[in-house]
Design goal:
705 residues, 12 helices, 32% strand, Rossmann fold, hydrolase, alpha+beta, single chain, globular, 5-stranded antiparallel beta sheet, serine protease, oligopeptidase activity
């Protein structure tokens, strides 16, 4: 420990006398002033926290070793499965020396060239490629970029043959799908209303679906298709059938897991289609719908099937009473995706992706009957990231199915399945050579507090517990999102140093279907935290680690998870990394996208739901004179999803309340500017991981050198 670390002292933070009566609850909020980043007190406090964090983090042992390990593991690069359009293959690849993936196109003759390289466009490393979509003819590409982590996507269109910009930027396109019409002259997309057209504080909402003709002014020529008069928090997605006849619009309020669906016949006349509602959010279930190449409406839904099933219908009679089940729900796996596979021999198939306890499986089915006709053998226990095949109207490789693949120790790569031979072979590996550590991967089952069985992935140097080792546990448990096996350099770096890494599949996630999600949301959110505590206790009871060697980490909703974990069971965990977290659950709805999450958590405006939130809100459950673990908050000043004020307020509260010696169990806040909630460069990834891993290693006794 350096002298500077030994003398660590927290800055004085004013504790304002703010106590509000909310539905009969006396709710204190002494650090509300930290919500305002422009308040001089906040600026001074933040500057001091920056200095404290860097003083501590820069002096940690093993920093260079873990940074070099991370650089080495990330040098594997990545490659994505191709998207096929009229014989052209579009895909991303990141070479070992590149900061971001680069979009390439491969022509029919096999020649390949760079189509879009954001690092070349902006050498500062602040621009990220958010999404891209080629036209059906493969001659135009719509792409979206954002700058400085704000995720405020700017939409452009380029000519694939020449690489020249055709139009753009079109602003306010965050989270927009792009649905091309045949011919490549028009597309449907989602764009927010101009700020002057919406109430103050609602600039991030009020999305609309528009029809756009390439080359025209989107502010004057776009045709409004959908969204007026609906909930301003609605997110929309659009899909156009391959023949250009049918438009399907899906929508949901915020992140609520219940959907509305509309459909329109684009041949019925008029440029603005007449949308017919099929499902309403008040029906209370989830739906993903599209019109497939056989002319039928395909519907993936949780109606009467919390693990999802597939139905079909006539697009002209799209209502649920006309749905016919094609592929039934399975009791122990979750239906994730369905793809059309031409096969080239006149025997088209449906490719069905399921996850069984978060592990991918792929099967083939007869489109007419839904009968299972075969299985696609996968490389191992991992995750299918994409399933693609060539266009129906081309002859090139129609027999093949491309599979994006990864697992905990395999960088993103591509395999190809031949329908003729029934075999899967590696098509493209990640471009960089990398030396992977010896790692044992397994999935174990433990019991939560109420007896519910929960599964957990374990990565370790030895197949069985040989001695208690420093352990790193992470999780998410929210919004029906699943944490599946995927290449994780930080986990491999931890295991390479001799530690154990764990990922439990917590309730609130989607690993076991919609019932699993609902069991960890709203009034049942405590189940998520109970599952996490039980996972920690399992690691201890089985001899993998001890509480004094146990570190936890989580980001976003996972930041809420570890924030609740450290306030509920400070005795169980030695160190915590809490990244871009939600922590003040009374006021979370008042900032950024917070109001779109109240279906998941509940709202403080409702007396009963406020009680749920207060029961676990980390900021409101900080207790005076408690021996809290070491805590590192990591936040990103350009985050447009979760406001950094959550971490500021929680950091101040913990620094005030903890009885731990700051020189032994510090509470620190690490800030980054010009980066946000999502994509970041390789260099920034290495920098963040170095600070996080070195912090946790020092606390748990893991030697990184």
């Amino acid at each position: 420990m350096t002298d500077a670390q030994a003398q660590l002292r927290y800055p004085t933070a004013d504790r304002d006398d703010i106590v509000e009566d909310l539905h009969g609850h006396q709710v204190a909020d002494p650090y509300r002033w930290l919500e305002d980043p422009a308040d001089p007190r906040t600026e001074a406090w933040s500057a001091t926290q920056d200095q404290l964090a860097r003083t501590w983090l820069d002096a940690l042992p093993g920093r260079e070793a873990v940074a070099e390990r991370m650089r080495s593991l990330l040098a594997a690069g990545s490659v994505s499965a191709p998207a096929w359009r009229n014989g052209r293959a579009f895909f991303t690849r990141r070479e070992p020396d590149q900061e971001f993936p680069v979009l390439h196109v491969r022509e029919r003759d096999g020649s390949e060239r760079v189509l879009l390289d954001v690092a070349a466009m902006d050498p500062s490393g602040l621009t990220t490629l958010d999404s891209w979509s080629p036209s059906l003819e493969g001659d135009r590409l719509a792409y979206q970029i954002s700058v400085g982590g704000d995720e405020e996507s700017l939409l452009h269109v380029l000519d694939v043959a020449t690489g020249e910009l055709v139009e753009g930027p079109i602003d306010r396109c965050r989270y927009s799908t792009i649905s091309w019409l045949p011919g490549g002259e028009e597309y449907f997309y989602v764009r927010r209303l101009a700020p002057e057209l919406v109430p103050d504080g609602e600039e991030q909402f009020h999305r609309r679906v528009w029809r756009h003709r390439v080359g025209t002014d989107p502010n004057t020529a776009d045709l409004l298709v959908h969204g007026d008069g609906l909930d301003p928090t609605y997110y929309y997605g659009t899909r156009v059938s391959r023949d250009g006849r049918w438009l399907v619009v899906e929508g949901s309020p915020g992140t609520a897991r219940r959907d509305s669906v509309w459909i329109a016949d684009l041949t019925a006349g008029g440029e603005v289609p007449e949308l017919r509602q099929v499902v309403d959010t008040s029906d209370g279930y989830r739906v993903g719908a599209w019109v497939e190449r056989d002319g039928r409406l395909y519907v993936m839904t949780t109606l009467d099937a919390p693990r999802w099933r597939l139905c079909v219908a006539d697009p002209q009679r799209p209502e649920p009473e006309h749905w016919t089940e094609l592929i039934a729900e399975q009791p122990d796996s979750v239906l994730e995706a369905v793809r059309w596979f031409d096969t080239g021999d006149g025997d088209p198939q449906l490719v069905v992706l399921r996850t069984r306890h978060a592990v991918s499986e792929v099967t083939l089915h007869d489109p007419a009957t839904g009968r299972r006709t075969g299985e696609v053998p996968l490389p191992g226990t991992g995750q299918v990231t994409a399933l693609t095949s060539v266009d129906e109207d081309t002859d090139q490789d129609r027999d093949r199915l491309w599979i994006g693949w990864t697992d905990f120790a395999t960088p993103p790569c591509v395999h190809a399945y031949s329908h003729r031979t029934g075999q899967v072979a590696l098509e493209q590996r990640a471009p960089g050579a990398v030396e992977l550590p010896a790692v044992h991967t397994q999935q174990v089952t433990y019991r939560s507090l109420d007896g519910t069985p929960v599964r957990m992935f374990l990565l370790s140097p030895a197949a069985e517990p040989d001695r208690p080792r420093p352990a790193f546990m992470t999780g998410y448990g929210g919004f029906s999102l699943s944490r599946e096996p995927g290449y994780t350099p930080s986990a491999l770096a931890w295991v390479a140093a001799g530690g154990v890494w764990a990922l439990p599949s917590l309730r609130g996630g989607g690993e076991e279907g919609e019932e699993w999600h609902e069991a960890g949301m709203r009034e049942q959110k405590q189940h998520t935290f109970d599952d996490f505590h039980a996972a920690a206790q399992h690691l201890i009871d089985e001899g993998w680690t001890t509480s004094d060697q146990l570190a936890i980490s989580g980001g976003s909703n996972g930041g809420l998870l570890v924030g609740a974990a450290l306030t509920q069971r400070p005795d169980l965990y030695r160190a915590v990394v809490c990244s871009a977290p939600l922590l003040d659950m009374v006021r979370y709805e008042q900032f950024l996208l917070g109001r779109t999450w109240n279906d998941e958590y509940g709202t403080a405006e409702d007396p009963e739901e406020l009680g749920w939130l207060l029961s676990y809100s980390p900021y409101h459950n900080v207790a005076e004179q408690t021996d809290y673990p070491s805590v590192l908050f990591t936040v990103f000043e350009s985050d447009t999803r979760v406001d950094p004020n959550h971490a500021r307020k929680m950091c101040a509260a913990l620094q005030h309340a903890t009885s731990s010696d700051p020189a032994k169990r510090p509470i620190l806040l690490r800030r980054e500017t010009e980066v946000g909630h999502a994509a970041r460069s390789v260099s920034r990834t290495v920098g963040l991981a170095t600070d996080q891993l070195a912090f946790l290693a020092e606390a748990t006794g893991l030697t990184l050198d």
